[in-house]
Please model this.
Amino acid sequence: MKILVLNAGSSSQKSCLYDINSLENIISPPSPLWEAIIDWTVSSNYGLLKAEAKGNKITLELPISNRQTAIKTMLDTMREGKTKVLNDLSDINVVGHRVVHGGSKYSQAILITEEVKATIRELIPLAPNHNPAHLEGIESIEKINQEIPQVAVFDTAFHRTIPDYGKIYPIPYEYYEQGIQRYGFHGISHEYVAQRTAEILDHEVALHDRTLDSLRLITCHLGNGCSITAIKDGISVNTSMGFTPLEGVMMGSRSGSIDPAIVTYFMREYDYDNRVIDEILNKKSGLLGISGISGDLRTVLKAMEEGDIKGKLAVEMYINRIQEVISSMLPCLGGLDGLVFTAGVGENSAFIREKICDKLGFLGLKLDTEKNNQFCLDKNIATDDSAVKILVVHTQEDWSIARQCYHLIR
Model:
């Protein structure tokens, strides 16, 4: 079964193609036949497409004016040129989409219908940086071939286990009854890295036979969007993102949690409407808003190294907010066995991992700086005498989505 996965983030469009005959005896995620990513952060004028298959790589600049055309161009690299793996896109059996917000209506993978698309569209105000991109991907596939079944896999599903006292906001209860609650996001990633963490720790003598249902973990998904989740006995018990992906830690262009009275102050003193406020908090805040340079941490870190004062402030705020949220997750776990870093920043920035761990020594957590500065994906980077394991796990959201598509279609 050929399964195409489209994983639209707030600043990128990732895609890969798997060929799965059976899931039996598959221990580690297989390599995809083809994979590609469009990064929309490299320039204000274009997106950068990188595609790879069979060891061959291509790079193209794509106009930012028409993102649906860009997605088609990305998919065309599967059937032409040196990254060709298909004769025709109709050879694809199913397309799986990561969908950030499913609201209270969807808590598991589902075939996409007009009704499902309508719900995704209705939820755009709750995920303005993501749900529009999901619809772009779905509609791009429809234009290519309407006969290919498409599946939505929701980021919110993993967090449905959060207890009522953690998911209900302290506002009049009637609003919870109308659907205002903590939904949580990046659930596909958090669930995968928790499972992978258990596999990695099971190979360590000190934690032999420690399965996922006996571990207390804090998983940190740090990318352009960031969320932190407390996982106890294999289930999500708390997470930093809430009703929308705006809540929680400081992010690339999102503010994270702020005093809610700032919103009413904006309305009263500046006469801003909801669209202006959404734009400020979702697209002009975070690292971008403080540094005034970029929402890409790599660019802000470079500016900091060159002596930029606001760049330095942005990085310090980013690290501090993450440390605060990690600490706030401890009571619901009653202790900590592992701290896990994943996603673009979590997997690639040794500096950020080190600085986050610096002030968490009171947990008995000790980072091995030599291990941290080496290639360390899917490894424990804590010292041997650390009371808490520290792991860097390569998130495999795409593989998780492909598995769910396979089960649903079969």
